[in-house]
Every structure is written in C-alpha cells, then in structure tokens.
Write a structure and sequence with these properties.
The chain has about 450 residues and is mainly alpha-helical. The chain has 10 helices and 11 strands. The N and C termini lie far apart (about 110 Å).
Length: about 450
C-alpha cells in the first residue's frame, strides 16, 4: 500500500550556492576592475595626501608670516619684508598653479579623447609598454624620451618624474615651471625663518623694537597684537612664542626637504640628464657592482685553492681520529657489560660441570694427593672431559656474545680497525676463570 506524501524540498536546493565563476553585470566583469582613465593634470580627482599637505603648509606660512610676524618688524624692515617675501610667495603660487595645470602628456596623446579608458597592458603580448617608439596602451607614436606613467596612465613627453606634491607628472612641458616653483618655495621659507628668528631673539633682548606700531600705545606691555594693521587681535606673550616656535620647526623641516630637492635638480641639470635617466644609471651601476662582487667571490685566488685542496685530507684525518676515539669509548663500555655477563655465565657453567662430575667420580675433583692411573684409562677420560668442558665453555661464550651484541648492546664497529679489544677481554676472562678452577686430577 502506497502512502501519499507531499514532496519534501531539499534545503540544499533552496540555498544560495557559492559561485567561483565570475558573474557578469551587463557587458562589464565585476571581478576585473576597468582600467583607470588618464589624468589630464594635477587638478584631477582625487587629490593625493602630499598635495593636500603642500597646500596646507603654503596657506599656513602665508597667514602667520604676513599676519603675525612681518607686521611686528620695525620700520622700514616691515615694508621691505612685505615686498620681498610677498614676491617670493606670489611667484611660487603662480608657478605652482602653472605646474599643476599644464598637461605634460605627449602631443599625440593629448590629441586623443581622454574620456575613454585605456586598455589593460598584456605582458603576454608585449614585454614593454613602449616598443619601437609606439605605446601599446595609448596606441600612438611617441618620442624616444617619452615614458608611460603608471599613475597618470598616459605617455609623458621628455619624462622626468611623477611629483606626488603636485599630483602630476613633470616632463618637458612643465619642467622649468616646476624648477622655479622649487626655487621660490625655498627662498620664501628661508626668508620667513630669518624673520621668525629675529622676532624670537628680540622678544627677550629688546621687546620695544617689536612694539613700534601705533596700536601698541593703547595696550599694556605684556599684551601683543597680531594681524596688524587691519584687524589687530590681542595675544599673550606665551601664545606668540608658541606660534613662533611651531612655525620655526615646520619651516626648518620644509627647508631641509626643499634644499635637498633643489640641490638634486641642480645636479642633474649640470649633468644634463633627467631624474629617470639618473635613476636608471644608478641602478645599472649597482647591478654591475654586485655582479663584479659575485664574480670575485666565485673566482678565488690560487692560495685559497691550495688551502681548499689541503683541507679535505686534514679534515678526513681529524674525522678518522674522532671516529676511532668514539668507537673505542663505545667498545670499552660494551666490554665492561660483556665481562659482567661472562662472569655470571662462567660461574653457572662451572657449577653445572662440578655437579655433573660429582655424580660420576669425585676423585677427579679431589683436593688430596694425586692418584696414579694407568695411561689410556682414566687419563684419557680426563682429557676427553677437559676438552668437552672447554668446547662447551667456548660455545657458551659465543652464544652469550651473540645475544649481547644483538639484543642488549648496540653494535659499534670501527671502520678503521677490528674488534681486537673485545677478543682480548674474552681471552683474559677465560684465563682468569681457568686459573681459579681447581686443577684436574692427572
């Protein structure tokens, strides 16, 4: 009889399975991100962290320099500082914006449409992005000094380097603007540091030199004014010194970076190379020097070869001596164990022989005077019994030795010598036991 049962749905059929194959959404593969679009210039989003730090530092130096420190200078140094430092900061701002705004891409790349994404580089088809002055990604003819920047994702004419502070590449179109940007930044920060040092020293030596502005006549000597002359704000002495100290430290750090960068670019300009070419030459020299060092290590001098030729024999002799000493120690330890086992076996065998002999004839083991017997009668029997005792004793020793070497004691064999010590111990033990036994009757 069949029972009508409702179909039971398996839980595994209703469960979402884990998919290992890529899922498609439209015409794009979700697992493979599309190639990034080329950046036009340094204003392309998103900005880098170093670019934001550069803009913040420039804004901070501008505010504290022209709002706090330069107005405190005595006349006419405040007017001179406004003109000189202001010119450096303004020129830096113009060149900075120009460096960021200029598109350093190759003319053939700039002629294409930037809205479309570039294809992904396939190493299986091409060894390099640019082959025979043709970029396989930009799909245009480029010059011999053009390089494809991975960050900007486009070919840069006369490529020098990619600047993270400007978020753009530095090439032939914007190199000199970039160089002036570095020079003006170095000069502006250096002059600002000199002004802060002067104010910091005069604050302790002669504060009246910094209080020449007419606004200070209506305040006490312990009060300082900032953002003169348009919007004077009162501040304490400790607050002014705190801002001066922080600005001084930030200025020294920035100056160290700018001097290093400026010195490097002066060096490569003097050698008529770009930053990229300089790094390539440096890497090539390092590879060559490491190759020479490895070649020198692999080709030793004749003296070292002679030394290595003599070393194996000396090492083998030392190894043989060590092996012989260690083997002797092991054999000596085994011999002591074997001797103790032999003593017990010999005693047991002697007791057995005595008991068997006592049951036949006690005269042979008597301690009294010797009994004269006829040749060929009792003497022959005694000789035969002595031989049988010796054979049985030797057989017992061989059996005990085989059991000891196989079961109890590990076998250590000296490859350079035979087991002479073991044989000597056996013979010595045999002679001692024989002498300790009572003499046979003759």
């Amino acid at each position: 009889m069949l029972l009508n049962r409702a179909p039971v749905e398996m839980s595994c059929c209703t469960r979402h399975l884990r998919r290992t194959a890529p899922t498609h959404a439209g015409s794009h593969n979700e697992l493979v991100p599309p190639a990034p679009q080329p950046q036009r210039n340094g204003w392309s989003l998103p900005p880098t962290t170093m670019q934001l730090v550069a803009w913040f530092t420039y804004a901070y130096f501008t505010i504290v320099g022209f709002g706090i420190f330069i107005p405190l200078l005595p006349s006419p140094w405040n007017s001179v500082s406004f003109g000189v430092v202001g010119a450096a900061f303004f020129l830096h701002l113009v060149t900075h914006i120009a460096s960021v705004s200029v598109d350093p891409a190759h003319p053939n790349v700039r002629a294409k449409n930037y809205s479309s994404a570039l294809p992904t580089f396939d190493k299986g088809k091409h060894k390099h992005v640019i082959e025979n002055d043709y970029c396989t990604l930009c799909e245009v003819e480029v010059g011999p000094k053009a390089k494809h920047c991975r960050t900007c994702n486009k070919c840069i004419a006369d490529f020098d380097h990619h600047c993270k502070w400007l978020n753009t590449c530095i090439g032939g179109r914007n190199y000199w603007v970039f160089f002036v940007t570095v020079v003006t930044a170095t000069a502006g920060v250096f002059l600002l540091i000199l002004i802060i040092l002067f104010i910091f020293i005069e604050h302790f030596v002669n504060p009246a030199t910094l209080r020449t502005a007419p606004q200070f006549e209506s305040v006490q000597n312990s009060t300082w004014l900032v953002f003169l002359p348009l919007a004077p704000v009162q501040s304490s002495s400790s607050g002014l010194l705190g801002v001066a100290g922080f600005t001084l430290l930030l200025g020294l750090f920035s100056l160290a970076l700018l001097v290093h960068l400026l010195g490097f670019h002066i060096y490569i300009l003097f050698n008529k190379v770009s930053t990229y070419e300089h790094l390539q030459r440096k890497t090539k020299r390092q590879v060559q020097s490491s190759g020479k060092a490895e070649a020198g290590f692999k080709q030793p001098s004749p003296d070292s070869e002679d030394t290595r030729k003599e070393t194996p024999s000396e090492t083998s002799v030392e190894c043989e001596l060590t092996m012989q000493i260690e083997t002797s120690k092991l054999e000596y330890t085994d011999e002591r164990q074997l001797a103790s086992r032999l003593s017990d076996a010999i005693c047991a065998e002697m007791k057995r022989i005595k008991s068997s002999a006592s049951g036949v004839d006690h005269s042979y083991y008597s301690t009294g005077s010797s009994t004269h017997v006829m040749p060929g009668t009792v003497g022959a029997t005694t000789s035969d019994e002595s031989l049988s005792w010796t054979d049985s004793f030797r057989a017992a020793i061989r059996q005990l030795k085989s059991e000891t070497s196989v079961e109890d004691t590990p076998v250590h064999q000296n490859p350079l010598s035979s087991s002479v010590m073991i044989t000597t111990v056996e013979d010595h033990q045999l002679s001692v036991d024989t002498q300790s036994d009572p003499p046979l009757s003759q």
